[in-house]
Amino acid sequence: MKNPIITKVLAILGTVLALFPIAFMLFTSVVGSIDEGRFLMDYMFPAELGFVVAVGAVVLLWSAWTSPHDRMRVLIAGGAAILFFLLVLVVAAATGLDEDPDPSGFLLGLVTALLVLYDLATAAIGVAGVLYLRKLFRKSIT
Q: With contact defined as beta carbons under 8 Å apart, do 111 and 92 qualify?
């Protein structure tokens, strides 16, 4: 992108959108845990707001398109997030776990692990955005 101000604004917006579901999950976890007196965390929250993560990743990728190294970070993290999200859906649907009123066992553990991997990939998109922002604000892109 030729305009450094637009590049920076898009990078900030993309990073904030990508990190919002993770930050909100952590915030509600702290508040809920303090309120209930036990540890609580809705690890499904970033998947429920997957569209926000997707928009953030696309905006961040659009901003980073002129920087091959940063573009690859966003692409890899975004690709991993998409892969794990789709695996959660496919495994849950193929095994009938999505319709089980009381899921348990290995399949529940597998879907939960895939969901946690999706959460980590979502956080990786945000980390890629922060690293890109550091580079943007350290030097001007022309």
A: yes
For the cut 70, the answer to whether the pLDDT of residue 77 exceeds it is yes
CB under 8 Å to 80, separation ≥6 — which residues? 117, 121, 124
How far, CA to CA in Å, does 49 sit from each of 43, 46, 54? 11, 5, 9
The answer, yes or no, to whether residue 1 has pLDDT greater than 60, is: no
Exposed / middle / buried, residue 47 (Cβ in 10 Å: 0-12, 13-18, 19+)? buried
pTM: 0.83
Residue 51: which of 26, 81, 27 has the closest Cα?
A: 81
Among 11-15, 28-32, 41-45, 55-59, name the one with the lowest average pLDDT. Answer: 41-45
- Tell me 97's DSSP state: G
* Cα gap 135→68, rounded to integer Å: 13
Q: Tell me, what amino acid is at 126?
A: G
Question: What do you get for the CA distance between the two ends of the chain, in Å?
Answer: 8
